[in-house]
TrEMBL record:
Domain of life, source organism: Bacteria
Molecular function, one GO term: uroporphyrin-III C-methyltransferase activity
UniProt-listed InterPro entries: 4pyrrol_Mease, 4pyrrol_Methylase_sf, 4pyrrole_Mease_sub1, 4pyrrole_Mease_sub2, CobA/CysG_C, Siro_Cobalamin_biosynth, Uropor_MeTrfase_CS
UniProt name for this protein: uroporphyrinogen-III C-methyltransferase
EC number assigned by the record: 2.1.1.107
Family matches, as NCBIfam families: cobA_cysG_Cterm, PRK06136.1
Length: 255
């Protein structure tokens, strides 16, 4: 039984071990965010089973996913549980490994590239930088109880950097909490949609404009919010040009 990180979406960012595990699998239980290009890596005889969970949307219950994993593993199949990004970062890995432990089923984990790393790379920036931030926070925008509370005072400090997963719907909440705790309204926040994929899109904003900019952009793909980071100047110029081109196309289509 193998847990495998599918990375952020670009098949070329799969690890060699991830590819080998997928090619050898009899059954692949995969997240909703794993794109078709990555599922195509599976062997021809592999059975692909969607077990997706989407925030604020239809989702398979975790107990049902656990039961499916155990059923296929006990049946003798070579099972891959394919998780978007890295299995250990907001991927419910512990809940599934604990179920396997209880059932006496051995497993191993193949890590994957997480969305925050791919998003920062696409912006031409690093997640850590001497003289700017000596730590990096990986946060979730919401948890089982609703919008997730954080150490806002620390996050509001100048130079703080955080990657916020599942944060689009929580943008106004994040904005309010951070500014309430002293974050400067001009703090950069870049939203990266579909990191590493052909349709990757960057939305540069500030803390003051974040919620309004997200509403106007109407992003519908998976996104990570990078608090405290703005794209490199050359990347920002390209983003502006692409946004202008999109606007012209949409205007022409509306006429």
């Amino acid at each position: 039984m193998a847990f495998v990180g599918a990375g952020p979406g670009d098949p070329e960012l799969l690890t060699m071990r991830a590819v080998r595990m997928m090619e050898c699998a009899d059954v692949i239980l995969h997240d909703a965010l794993v794109p078709a290009d990555i599922l195509a890596v599976a062997g021809d005889s592999a059975r692909l089973v969607p077990v997706g969970k989407r925030g604020f949307g239809p989702s398979m219950k975790q107990d049902e996913i656990n039961a499916l994993i155990i059923e296929h593993a006990l049946g003798g199949a070579r099972v891959v549980r394919l998780k978007s990004g890295d299995p250990g970062i907001f991927g419910r890995l512990d809940e599934e490994t604990q179920a396997l432990e209880a059932a006496g089923i051995p497993y191993h984990v193949t890590p994957g590239l997480t969305a925050a790393s791919a998003a920062a790379a696409g912006m031409g920036v690093s997640l850590t930088k001497r003289g700017r931030n000596s730590d990096l926070r990986l946060l979730t925008g919401h948890d089982v109880k609703g919008f997730a509370e954080q150490d806002w005072r620390t996050l509001a400090r100048p130079g703080a950097v955080a990657a916020i997963y599942m944060g689009k719907r929580a943008a106004r909440f994040l904005q309010g909490r951070l500014m309430m705790h002293g974050a400067h309204p001009d703090t950069p926040v870049t939203v990266v949609e579909n990191a590493s994929r052909a349709d990757e899109r960057h939305l540069p904003a500030t803390l003051a404009t974040l919620a309004a900019d997200l509403d106007a952009a109407a992003l519908d793909g998976p996104a990570v919010l990078l608090l405290g980071l703005a794209p490199q100047a050359s990347v920002a110029s390209r983003i502006a040009a692409e946004a202008a081109a999109r606007g012209a196309t949409e205007h022409a289509a509306a006429r």
